[in-house]
Amino acid sequence: MSNIETSSRLKPAGRSRCLDRALPQWILNLTRPVIGSFSRIFWRLEHKGVENIPADTGLIVAANHQSYGDPFWLSLPIKRPIRYLAWSEAFSWPVVGKAIRLLGAWPLQIEGSDPAAIRRSLTWLRDRGVVVIFPEGGRGLPDGSMIRMKGGAVRMALEAGVPILPVTIRGANRVWPAGRRLPRPGKVEITYHPAFYLEQQPGEENRACARRETERLANIIQSAL
Description:
Shape: globular
Strand order of the largest sheet: 1-7-6-2-5-3-4
Order of helices and strands: HHEEHEHEHEHEHEH
Structural class: alpha/beta
Helix content: 25-40%
Radius of gyration: 17 Å
């Protein structure tokens, strides 16, 4: 039985046992066209490859990270319940911390392992939910190039048996660079690459597979920068 067939037997993510403080999905759905219209006008936001977004399976969205606006912009075409793994320190920031929690972010300890966050995410994925992860662990370099990706997204996909959707964010580093309080006008492009299941080779250890597939993921994302 395929992973997709297995996923179809699970309960939808809206019924997930994961408890959080996110706004109800209907409220988030109402804000989507407002944010989308504003972003297309102010940042000339363009989404490419939206046909590659799977419609009905647990899914990890793995993207490069250039600005604070990345989670909002990349989520607009994904019309499904989404949760975000965000740096735990961000939840203590004024305004931002409250906002990201209401939008569905869960805290993740970047330093070391975080079993609670991983368990919560795996439950959500097995209930056919979407989890957004930025494998770099922080924003990339000021010129928009990526830093080395960590293997957490790949390891989580292996354990949950769900595909990864690689996403390339381009131009956000110029629109909202590090150190700038508010974004400025500019051009942002979001590219959704074809989703793929991880391919563990016969006899290959999980750690070796994670390293190889993380490199594959990074190369796909890098290809559209």
